[in-house]
Amino acid sequence: MPGVVLDELWQTIGVVERALFAVSALVVVIGLAGLVSTMLASLKERLQAINREVGATFVVIEHNMDFVMDLCHRIMVMVEGQVLAIGTPEEIRSNKQVLDAYLGN
């Protein structure tokens, strides 16, 4: 089963790469639950390479915060459909409102 998931993931990345030749921004909704760390690292590296090579902007919708923090330069955090914070990963990590909303501090 992991091989099938990985094949589907790379096929999706191929679609993303082809789509970026026609647009400059793309929304990417990724369900990363259950992916092993090596698959996550490969996905992150490929998305970063596409960003560098094509200059494309991604809007990534994902709940795996370690992945998002490593991948993104700017992050928007939402709670119940409302924007709570926008900033760099460092700013988001230290934002009291974000910590309260997600960690219950």
Walkthrough of the structure:
- This protein has helices spanning 2-19, 37-54, 65-71, 89-93, 96-103, and strands spanning 25-29, 57-61, 75-79, 82-87.
- The protein has 105 residues and is an alpha+beta fold.
- The strands form two sheets. The chain has a two-stranded parallel ribbon with strand order 1-2.
- Strand 3 and strand 4 (82-87) form a beta hairpin.
- The radius of gyration is 15 Å and the shape is globular.
The average pLDDT is 77
The H-and-E topology, N to C, reads as: HEHEHEEHH
Q: Are there runs of 5+ residues with pLDDT below 50, and where?
A: 1-5
Main beta-sheet annotation: 2 strands, parallel
Strand order of the largest sheet: 1-2
* Shape assignment: globular
Total count of strands: 4
Strand content: 15-25%
**Coarse structural class:** alpha+beta
Number of helices: 5
Separation of the first and last Cα atoms: 39 Å
Radius of gyration over C-alpha positions, nearest whole angstrom: 15 Å
Name the helicity range. Answer: 40-55%
